[in-house]
Amino acid sequence: MLIYFGYTFCPDVCPIDLQRTAAALKILEEQAPATLDKIQPIFVTIDPERDTPDVMKAYVTAFGPRFVGLTGTVAQIDAAKKAYRVFSQKRQDAGSSDYLMDHSSVTYLMAPNGDYVTVFGSETKAQVMADTLKAKVE
């Protein structure tokens, strides 16, 4: 599993990171389709107030058909963030109903049994991610 925590209203880092993951999966589709078949990209919201199931589905399908979007209650999302040690915090200007979410931005590669394998930071290039996935996913 490639697991990324973010939110659909994110103006910059989330779409860039998800595009990178999509590009890495495209590389695997061309170079190592057997490896690609073993990978499930998952986008977990940190903003369940706005990221409903329908919003999540529409958002993740923009990055490819393999992506799954997960949302839930605030308590469920908080438990998932705690398990992965994900930071997030609402940032809202006084007098405005709009807000952004400050958050960590890494993609976790997890084994089928849930064990941690490695992490990809925002600076990781798609080819490096694809090469690492080929090497780590058996």
From TrEMBL:
InterPro entries: SCO1/SenC (IPR003782), Thioredoxin-like_sf (IPR036249). The keyword Metal-binding applies. SUPFAM superfamilies: Thioredoxin-like (SSF52833). Coiled coil: none annotated. GO terms for molecular function: metal ion binding. Cu cation binds at residues 10, 14, 103. It comes from the Bacteria. PANTHER family: ELECTRON TRANSPORT PROTIN SCO1/SENC FAMILY MEMBER, LINALOOL DEHYDRATASE_ISOMERASE DOMAIN-CONTAINING PROTEIN. This is SCO family protein. It comes from Hankyongella ginsenosidimutans.
